[in-house]
Write a structure and sequence with these properties.
Number of strands of chain A: 0
Number of helices of chain A: 5
Oligomer: heterodimer
Radius of gyration of chain A: 18 Å
Structural class of chain B: mainly alpha
Chain lengths: ~150, ~100
């Protein structure tokens, strides 16, 4: 059950990572459809279309992470402490804070993408970039800790 | 509606940071007994405070949504929306630096 949940958590996180990265790059792009490079075309997308998917995926990933958390505290954290891997413990503590901050910022993020006023263009861009950064951190650290646990046991 | 959502997010994010800095979880999840202990900060064995910090934040966000008139801060909202989260991320990094020293 826990393994299945961990895999689902990882798969949903991949979807979230893709969606928010695409949206963040689109939010920062100049909409110049004449440019023909792959990167330029990748960024020419309607970022607003991603916000619902990002919110749903984030809540899903967060809920699964919250369900997995007791297992982490029982099996992984004691192992990190026994091996004196303080930095690994620390990066997970940050993952914990970043997940919570991102979760409570979702309503504002969603609202900025619903605002057509140009006053919110900067907030929309930076808030999306901040969330994308937090999602990237959480994804990489999750993979790192799963790898540490897998390598040791 | 949008302004209220933004007020919720800002208040909840600030409240979450205060909750873990000052240990204000709404409850603690006791891993040994598998039960919630409201308004506690410790348990008999290993415990999870994160759920409680998050609930403290959501509660504070909801209260702020009801109490703070969005018109009062509407002018500053666009700037606060990216500035406050950036400051709170720096605060988290500073708080957790103890693990890396």
């Amino acid at each position: 059950m826990i393994t299945a949940l961990l895999i689902l958590h990882g798969l949903a996180a991949v979807g979230l990572l893709g969606a928010i990265t695409h949206q963040a790059l689109a939010a920062a792009a100049r909409q110049d459809i004449r440019r023909r490079s792959f990167f330029a075309r990748f960024r020419v997308t309607d970022g607003a279309l991603y916000s619902n998917a990002v919110v749903v995926l984030f809540v899903l990933v967060g809920a699964m992470g919250a369900m997995l958390y007791p297992q982490y505290r029982i099996t992984v954290r004691p192992m990190l402490q026994t091996m004196d891997l303080r930095a690994a413990n620390g990066v997970f503590e940050l993952k914990e804070h970043f997940s919570a901050l991102a979760l409570v910022l979702l309503p504002a993020y969603w609202a900025t993408w619903r605002q057509s006023a140009s006053d919110y263009a900067t907030a929309r861009k930076w808030l999306t970039w901040i969330l994308a950064g937090l999602v990237w951190w959480n994804f990489v650290i999750g993979q790192l800790l799963a790898a540490i646990k897998g390598l040791v046991l | 509606m949008s302004a209220r959502l933004m007020v919720f997010s800002l208040a909840a994010a600030i409240a979450y940071t205060l909750a873990y800095y000052f240990d204000w979880p709404l409850f603690v999840y006791d891993l040994t007994g598998g039960e919630l202990r409201f308004f506690a900060t410790t348990a008999s064995g290993p415990a999870i405070l994160w759920y409680g910090w998050l609930m403290t934040a959501i509660l504070a966000g909801l209260v702020a949504t009801l109490l703070v008139p969005p018109r009062l801060i509407e002018r500053f909202l666009p700037d606060l929306l990216w500035f406050v989260p950036a400051v709170l991320i720096v605060a988290a990094l500073l708080y957790e630096k103890r693990w890396f020293l």
